[in-house]
Amino acid sequence: MALAGVRVIELAGLAPAPFCGMVLADFGAKVIRVDRTKVPVSLDTLHRGKRSVAVDLKTAEGRALLRRLCVQSDVVLEPYRKGVMEKLGLGPQELLTENPRLIYARLTGYGQNGSHATAAGHDINYLAMSGLLSRLGRSGEKPLAPLNLLADFAGGGLTCALGIVLALLEREKSGKGQVIDASMVEGAAYAGSFVWKSGSIGMWDRGRGENLLDGGAPFYDTYRTQDGKFMAVGALEPQFYLQLLKVLELDPRELPPQMSFSDWPELRRIFSARFASKPQAEWSRLFQGTDACVTPVLSLDQVSSHPHNRERGSFMKDSGGGEFPRPAPVLSRTPARPSPAAHLTTGEHTVEVLQEFGFNSEEIEQMLAAGVVEASTERSKL
Ligand SMILES: C[C@H](CCC[C@@H](C)[C@H]1CC[C@H]2[C@@H]3[C@H](O)C[C@@H]4C[C@H](O)CC[C@]4(C)[C@H]3C[C@H](O)[C@]12C)C(=O)SCCNC(=O)CCNC(=O)[C@H](O)C(C)(C)COP(=O)(O)OP(=O)(O)OC[C@H]1O[C@@H](n2cnc3c(N)ncnc32)[C@H](O)[C@@H]1OP(=O)(O)O
Q1: Tell me, what's the pLDDT at 41?
Q2: Ligand 1, closest atom to CA 123?
Q3: Nearest alpha carbon to residue 255 among 233, 223, 242, 294
Q4: Is CB count within 10 Å lower at the N or C end of the chain?
């Protein structure tokens, strides 16, 4: 796999950093998640392909242990607010001195400087500070965050993974590591560059929810079907729009022009009435094979059985039968091979990893006895 041989130390975080670590693990990196001790159950649902060691970083021995892991690793990924790692004596200054090849990834909401740098926050806060949240939501309603996808994952975990891969590639030439300052505010905004760049062509001149791509246009929206499900319509171009009207059995000569903003509410009423006349499966059959840009809004339990997704194998199952999206993109020669493991217990691999990193049995025993590290019973045989 593309990242085979890359060693990553992921300090346990909430969602963005775990997702970043999972992406790296899916594509072959060896990711070790450093969990807190005395926390039997991790909230990390994105643990696929990782191993867990439980270390108390509030002890000098625990911090020394982490330094020893980082000296022998390629990447350290930390999910804490600005300054936390420095307080532990584990900041870039220390770790890059001990390992100049280390890629030190810092995934935060607001970045390593600025008035908010030390403030707590979550996806919705970062999305709000990016400007994008102001553009999300129906006309006349308050801004609506699209789950915690844009800041936590698109602008956070995935952007940080890109930064890590870029730094790994650059290190091939320079031989040097560097610090990655991954701010979710900036990552989300960057992922939304189109909004800034397309403003110049009038894409966002109208209020929230009244533009071409934010739910304003009746030919770029969702519609309830007779059975209470939905169809998604994306018929932007005139040639696709005409195919939409054809399947809906509407005569364009009897309708207002597609781009007549003032007539969009009337068009939406007409489309709503048509879509409400048949069940989703019937509309799916009618639109299949056309270029009307109309698709069923699939629920999470429908996606893997949809013929297209099934043919591609777009969704997989882990050893526990849990379904998950296949890692993307698919590399032709070195594709991701996600681990099938369904569970990860805090400290499950503490002994195994410490042995791998050169700790001898006496050192491990001492740290276990002192509570510097913890090992879950399932896997900790010396
Ligand atoms: C929308 C998403 C949220 C996704 C996660 C959700 C799934 C879950 C989040 C909260 C959960 C709920 C909650 O826990 C309450 C219930 C609990 C119950 O058990 C289950 C149900 C719950 C409802 C539960 C359900 C779900 O699990 C949740 C909803 C996001 O937006 S996530 C993005 C968050 N932001 C960032 O990641 C940006 C960067 N990070 C930060 O800004 C801060 O870390 C953050 C997130 C604000 C947290 O701040 P906090 O003060 O807690 O920590 P830090 O300041 O970072 O400092 C870390 C301290 O920990 C010490 N430390 C670290 N490792 C170790 C170690 N191995 N040993 C010892 N100590 C360690 C470190 O030294 C720091 O200590 P100090 O404070 O003394 O410096």
Answers
A1: 81
A2: 31
A3: 242
A4: C
Residue 201 falls inside a structural domain: no
Residue 13 C-alpha to ligand 1 middle, in angstroms?
Answer: 6
> For residue 305, what are the contacts with CB-CB under 8 A and spacing of at least 6?
none
Q: What is the pLDDT at residue 377?
A: 66
Q: Does residue 379 have a pLDDT over 50?
A: no
Contact 351, 323 (CB under 8 A): no
Residue 250 exposure: Cα atoms within 13 Å on the Cβ side: 21
Residues 41 and 144 in one domain: yes
Output the residue whose Cα is nearest ligand 1's atom 31: 122
Given this model, what pLDDT does residue 309 score?
Answer: 98
318 burial level (CB within 10 Å; 0-12, 13-18, 19+): middle
- 235 by Cβ neighbours in 10 Å (0-12 / 13-18 / 19+) ranks as buried
pLDDT beyond 90 at 43: no
Which residue puts its alpha carbon closest to atom 45 of ligand 1? 120
Q: Are 297 and 182 part of one and the same domain?
A: no
**Together in a domain, 326 and 277:** no
Q: Which atom of ligand 1 is nearest to the CA of 35?
A: 67
Which residues have C-beta atoms less than 6 Å from ligand 1? 11, 13-16, 34, 36, 43, 55-58, 79-81, 84, 87-88, 108-109, 120-123, 148, 152
Do 97 and 21 belong together in one domain?
yes
Is residue 262 located within the same domain as residue 171?
no
Are residue 185 and residue 62 in the same domain, yes or no? yes
Task: Give the tens place of pLDDT for each residue, 196-239.
Answer: 999 989 899 999 999 999 999 999 999 999 999 999 999 999 99
Model pLDDT for residues 320-352, shown as the tens digit of each residue: 999 999 999 999 999 999 999 999 999 999 999
How do beta strands 103-108 and 75-78 pair?
A: parallel
Q: Which of 26, 56, 152, 221 is catalytic?
A: 152
State the total domains in the chain: 2
ipTM of the complex, rounded to two decimals? 0.95
Last residue of a domain, one of 262, 284, 312: 312
Query: Probe ligand 1: pick from 43, 52, 88, max atoms within 8 Å of CB?
Result: 43
Residue 203 inside a domain? The answer is: no
For ligand 1, the distance from its centroid to the CA atom of residue 236, given in whole angstroms, is 42
Do both 306 and 339 map to the same domain?
A: no
Which domain does 278 fall in, by range?
220-312
Residue nearest to atom 66 of ligand 1 (CA): 36
